[in-house]
Structure formats: structure tokens, C-alpha cells
Amino acid sequence: MENRIEKRIELAAPVSRVWRALTDYREFGEWFRVKLDGPFVPGQISRGHITYPGYEHVQWEVVVQKMDPERLFSFTWHPYSVDPKIDYSKETPTLVEFRLEKTAKGTLLLLTESGFDKIPSERFLEAFRRNDGGWTEQMKNIESYIAQKP
Questions:
Q1: Closest Cα partner for 99 from 90, 89, 112, 86?
Q2: pLDDT by residue for the chain (150 residues), tens digit each?
Q3: Alpha-carbon dihedral of residues 30, 53, 4, 126, nearest 10 degrees?
Q4: For 4-148, CATH number?
Q5: Which residue, of 30, 34, 36, 108, is most buried by count of CB atoms within 10 Å of its CB?
Q6: How far apart (Å, rounded) are the C-alpha atoms in residues 78 and 131?
């Protein structure tokens, strides 16, 4: 069974532009559809509210892991944690990594989310399926965002 999600997209923008879209909390919020309370800081919790229609009740909470400028941005979170009646804090979070590589046409964005094998079995399939589809949509969102705001 799959334990990780992998997505890749080549963006027609320099690495510095993609990095800013990923790590400036206001820009991230625009394309990801989340209103964040403040900047991303390694080792700290980032909180906010999802703004995507139908998910406005969902709290955003991640722990920023690494911010290696223009190379790697990563955080941990509880995937598909949308039910406000469930305490997901006892689950082991997954690791989301955005890696950037310069290409002849711009920037290759590599996204991985790993650690699904630690999710409780009753949530595993739905969390994996939802996040896999969600990341497909988010790759399109960042591509569109960067194209509209070079």
C-alpha cells in the first residue's frame, strides 16, 4: 500500500518567486486557501482557518520543520483532519516537503507527503485519497497563482 504522495510540476518562474509563494504566509494563504495568523517560523506552530468553500470550519495547524532558502520548505500536520469532534493530536503527523530545483524553463516543484503508515487504519485510506486529490489541486493552484502574480 502507498505510504507517500508525490507530485511534481514545472513552474515558469524563477526559484526565488516560487520560494516566496511557498513561504510568505500571505502568498501561501492565497493559493492554498487558508488565512494564516502569522509568518512561518521553523520549529513553531502555524495556525489559521481554511477558506476553501465547504471547509471554512477547518482549523489549519502545522508545525514548520525546515525553511532552507530556495531549496526546501517542510511542515508536519494531521492529514484530512476535518472533523471538529475528533482530537487528532494523538496521531503521528505526516511530513509535507516542498523541494525546489532550478530548470531551464523555471522551477521544478517537488511535493511529497510521507508517513501515512502511521495514520490509524480506520482513517488511512480516506486521508490518503483526500490528500492525494488535494495536492493535485494545490499544484494547479500554485501554478495559476504564480502565472497571475509573477
A1: 112
A2: 578 999 999 999 999 999 999 999 999 999 999 999 999 999 999 999 999 998 898 999 999 999 999 999 999 999 999 888 899 999 999 999 999 999 999 999 999 999 999 999 999 999 999 999 999 999 999 999 999 999
A3: 170
A4: 3.30.530.20
A5: 34
A6: 11
